[in-house]
Amino acid sequence: MENNTLLKVNDIHTFIGQFHILQGVSVEIPKGKIVSLLGRNGAGKTTTLKSILGLAPPTQGQVILDGEEIQGRRSYDIANMGIGFVPEHRAIFRDLSVHENLLIAERKKGDLEKKEELIFSLFPDLKRLIKLPGTNLSGGQQQMLAVARALVPDNKLLLIDEPSEGLAPVLIEQMMEAIRQLSAESTVLLVEQNFIVASQLAESYVIIEEGHSVKSGKMVDLAADPETIHRYLEAA
Ligand SMILES: Nc1ncnc2c1ncn2[C@@H]1O[C@H](COP(=O)(O)OP(=O)(O)OP(=O)(O)O)[C@@H](O)[C@H]1O
Ligand SMILES: [Mg+2]
Description:
- The structure is a single chain.
- By secondary structure, the chain is of the alpha/beta class.
- The protein contains ten helices and ten strands.
- It is 36% helix and 27% strand.
- The strands form two sheets. The chain has a six-stranded mixed beta sheet, sandwiched between helices.
- The termini are far apart.
- Adenosine-5'-triphosphate binds next to strand 2 and helix 1.
C-alpha cells in the first residue's frame, strides 16, 4: 500500500440478510483526492459505502484507514475516526431547522462554530435559511444541507452518495463547485450515476458491477473510452 493512501478497501464481501451483495470489491483512495465509485443501479455502490462505515459490515476482506484495519468495528467508532457520510436521498431531519440539523451533526461541542464560515461560503443559501425547518427547503437545498452536515465535524474522509441525484442543472453546478472546494481539505469517495459530474470532479474511478469491482483507473482514460462507459455505465 502506498503511504499516501488514506483508505484501502481490499476485496470485501458483504451480505445483506442472506444475500451475498458484495463479492469482491476493492477501492483505493489517495489522500486529498476524489475517487468516484461508478456502476449501474443495484451494482453495490451504496453497500460499499455502508461496508466501509460498518453499517453493513463485510464478512471477508479488509477496510484499512490510515494504515489501520477498521472492518468489524462498530460504525459509531468508525465514524469517530473521521469519516463523514452523506447518504442517498437527502437524509436530513425535516422537523428540525437548518441550524438544528447542523448542530446535531457535531461530534464535539464547538464543531459547528469552527466550520460555520466554511459551510456558509460553500452553501450561502443555508445561511439565509438557517431558522427554517427542513420541510421548507427545496430538494436542492436539502441536498446542500445533507452535505453541509458531513462538514461539521473534522473528517478526513467523506463518503458522498449521489449528490447530484434529482437536482436541477444550476444546482448540480453549485453542488459540484462545493465538492471541488471541500476536497481541498478532505478526501472524497463519490458515488455518482451522472458521469459528467463524476468525470469533472474525480481523478480516478472504480466501476462496480453485480457486487464486483471490475475496472479502475484514471478518470481521463475512462472519459476517452466510450466502449467501457457503454459496457458498464449506460442503461443496459
Ligand atoms: N436491504 C436489502 N435487502 C435486500 N437486498 C438489498 C438490500 N439493500 C440492497 N440490496 C440489494 O443489493 C444490491 C446492491 O444495492 P446498492 O444499494 O448497494 O446498489 P447501488 O449501486 O447503490 O444502486 P443505486 O444506484 O440504485 O443506488 C441490489 O441488488 C439491491 O437490490
Ligand atoms: Mg445507491
